[in-house]
Amino acid sequence: MGVTYKCLIIDDEKPAHQVLLSHINQCADLECVGHAYNGKDALLFMQEKDVDILFLDINMPLVSGLEFLEMLSVKPTTIVTTAYSDYALESYQNDAVDYLLKPISFTKFLKAVEKAKVFCKDKLQLKEVPSFITIKEDGMDYKINLDDIIYVESAGNYIKIFTNSRRKSYFVYGSLVGIKNDLSGSNFVQVHRSFIVNKLNIKERSIGKMTMTNNDEVPIGRKYQILLDQ
After folding, report:
1. Do residues 24 and 79 make contact, with C-beta atoms less than 8 angstroms apart?
2. Which residues, in sequence order, are CB contacts of 173 under 8 Å at separation 6+?
3. CA dist., res. 222 & res. 211, Å (int)
4. Alpha-carbon distances, residue 90 vs 7, 42, 108, 120, 124 (angstroms)
5. Most Cβ neighbours (<10 Å): which of 86, 101, 197, 217?
6. pLDDT in tens, the chain (230 residues)
7. What is the full DSSP assignment across 30-97?
């Protein structure tokens, strides 16, 4: 038997689900494993089940499709589905592999899916997650164990990495989006537009903020709250 790609449809409109489900059911190697009508439900679903291909609408209640993508530390292969043409650039910047305008024809659907399959196969080859990241500071390379990372803070064109190791922090050129892809695994979660934390190093939580194991306080953004409640 060949590979079967597990698909999740996220859209706040039932007719959109029906169209995509019909297209999926015509492809022997695709399986619709779930439906979600907002970002919160999608996050809950993805905590329980693996998803290979995500069909994601942009305009949704609670959390928009793009906000949803920004929250994920590990993104499934994503095809954006929307009635609006002005979100294409942002979608690709958030690693979407294709951008389909509604109404979605079966021909365009197939073309996007074939592209998504290539990305899925590439991800399978890279599935083993390393236990460390390598960063460069002042021309020197450093290995940091993922378990030692307490949190990461964005600072303009740089990021600060705070750790439990003897070297307490690093200040390196880069972005939060860039390092998020390296911090693969369920322990890391973005809690604010400028902060990613290691959940294992949260000491305590209160309204709008948390205290980490090094006693630093990190703010919690309202739209990221649902990620911490998993």
Report:
1. no
2. 136, 157, 158
3. 17
4. 22, 20, 20, 21, 25
5. 197
6. 468 899 999 999 999 999 999 999 999 999 999 999 998 888 888 877 889 999 999 988 878 888 888 877 678 899 999 998 888 888 888 889 999 999 999 999 999 999 999 988 766 654 555 688 889 898 888 999 998 999 999 998 999 999 998 788 999 998 888 888 788 666 888 999 999 999 999 999 998 999 999 999 999 998 887 667 65
7. EEEEEEESSHHHHHHHHHHS--SEEEEESS-SSS-HHHHHHH-SSPPEEEEEES-STTHHHHHHTTEE
Q: Other CB atoms closer than 10 Å to residue 115's CB: what's the count? A: 14
For the four alpha carbons of 153, 187, 144 and 132, in that order, the dihedral sign comes to: negative
Angle at CA of residue 95, ends 121 and 210, nearest 5° = 110
pTM score above 0.70: no
